[in-house]
Amino acid sequence: MSDDTQLLGHCPNCDAAIPEAWLLVKYTKDNGATGIWAECPDCGTVVAPA
Ligand SMILES: [Zn+2]
Q1: What distance in angstroms lies between residue 10's CA and the mean position of ligand 1's atoms?
Q2: Is residue 3 scored above 70 in pLDDT?
Q3: Is 41:23 a contact under the CB 8 Å cutoff?
Q4: How far is the CA of 37 from the centre of ligand 1 (A)?
Q5: Using one digit for the tens of pLDDT, what is the confidence trace for 12-47?
Q6: Spatial separation of the C-alpha atoms in residues 11 and 28, rounded to whole Å
Q7: How far is the CA of 30 from the centre of ligand 1 (A)?
Q8: C-alpha 28 – ligand 1 centre gap (Å)
Q9: What is the dihedral of CA 8, 25, 49, 10, to 10 degrees?
Q10: Element (H, E) at 38
């Protein structure tokens, strides 16, 4: 993985790769893990990248 194209993960709807620039919200879950919401550049849906 290159430094300039960090990925948040993949869209659970269409499996498109979601770059870090599409991050909308970052939050801390009850268990201390970091959760994120991002907009999928392909299908336009707000998703939790997997
Ligand atoms: Zn998608």
Answers
A1: 8
A2: no
A3: no
A4: 12
A5: 999 999 999 999 999 999 999 999 999 999 999 999
A6: 20
A7: 26
A8: 23
A9: -50
A10: strand 34-39
Q: What is the pLDDT of residue 5?
A: 76
Distance 12 CA to ligand 1 centre (A): 7
Distance from residue 13's CA to the centre of ligand 1 (Å): 5
Distance of CA 3 from the midpoint of ligand 1 (Å): 23
* Token pair 């919200």: residue: 25
- Reported as half-sphere exposure (CB side, CA atoms, 13 A), residue 24 has a value of 12
* Domain-wise residue ranges, the chain: 7-47
d(CA 4, CA 31): 30
